[in-house]
Amino acid sequence: MKSRFQHSPKEVGAMSTNDLRAAFLIEDIMKEDDLHLTYTHYDRVIIGGVKPVSKTIALDNVAELRADYFLQRRELGVINVGGKGTVEADGKAYDLDKLDCLYAGKGVQSVLFKSVDAAAPALFFFLSSPAHAAYPVQFLSRGNASPASIGSLETSNARTIYKYIHADGIKSCQLVMGLTVLQQGSVWNTMPAHTHTRRMEAYFYFDIPETQRVFHFMGEPIETRHIVMNNHQAVVSPPWSIHSGCGTSNYSFIWGMAGENYTYTDMDVIAIDEMK
């Protein structure tokens, strides 16, 4: 498991492109028959991914957690962005089509990932945060995720938001998780931008065409930076940073948060004309 440490706004303001990418960009999340784990010191969230092809992959314990098993003191949110797959939690199997979600709470001792068809493997992206209370394993399909359409084609940000793990959906200790799908012809996400100093956030971009890219914007609202991102890459957003993006085509992304405040709408919106 790799580790990423925290950085202050002053440090980020002086970073080069390579420094920004090394500090916040997470590449190679989806490798065949491999489990990827990155431990961030922003609210101690673990960002991970797994692409099971020829075998079942277990969410094995890692020595750095000093735990008896991975979810002994943690909770987990999983979203599939690939072909049909199965996630097994403590012996019970759940089938996940593309954009379905599964939550596993504190105390679940065994989590297994596998694909139904090796020719069209599942792609499981997941987030794990510390948990002080146990909530039951829950499944939520894309169709039942209360989609909400916002934005417009006139401002290039027509998009549909799917909320999975939140106060009015799957209950968790502190993890909040969902995804956004941009309509064809729209490229901007989360604009006007916002910050929420009470929790960190992570973005995982997917369904980006091979020859296209997303410019992910971060930093303080009055001193923005950007990271160019490819398909199936994630980026860490510090609590003090904006998190927005613009693509060379439409795309989708998973967002997930953890921290002090569990309320989805807890954000400090930044007016577009105030950004620099």
Keywords:
mainly beta, 24 strands, 276 residues, globular, Jelly Rolls, 7-stranded mixed sheet
Topology at a glance:
Layout: E1 2-4, H1 9-13, H2 17-24, E2 25-26, E3 35-40, E4 46-50, E5 57-58, E6 74-80, E7 85-89, E8 92-96, E9 101-104, E10 111-115, E11 124-130, E12 138-140, E13 148-150, E14 159-165, E15 176-182, E16 188-189, E17 194-195, E18 199-206, E19 214-220, E20 223-229, E21 233-237, E22 244-247, E23 252-259, E24 268-269
Parallel strand pairs: 1-3
Antiparallel strand pairs: 2-21, 3-4, 4-11, 5-10, 6-9, 6-11, 7-8, 7-10, 9-12, 13-14, 14-15, 15-23, 16-22, 17-24, 18-21, 18-23, 19-20, 19-22
Please explain how this structure is put together:
The chain has 276 residues and is mainly beta. The chain is built from two helices and 24 strands. It has a seven-stranded mixed β-sheet, with no helix packed on it. Strands 2-21-18-23-15-14-13 form a seven-stranded antiparallel β-sheet. A hairpin with a 5-residue loop joins strand 3 (35-40) and strand 4. The longest helix is centred in the first third of the chain and has 8 residues, at 17-24. The radius of gyration is 18 Å and the shape is globular.
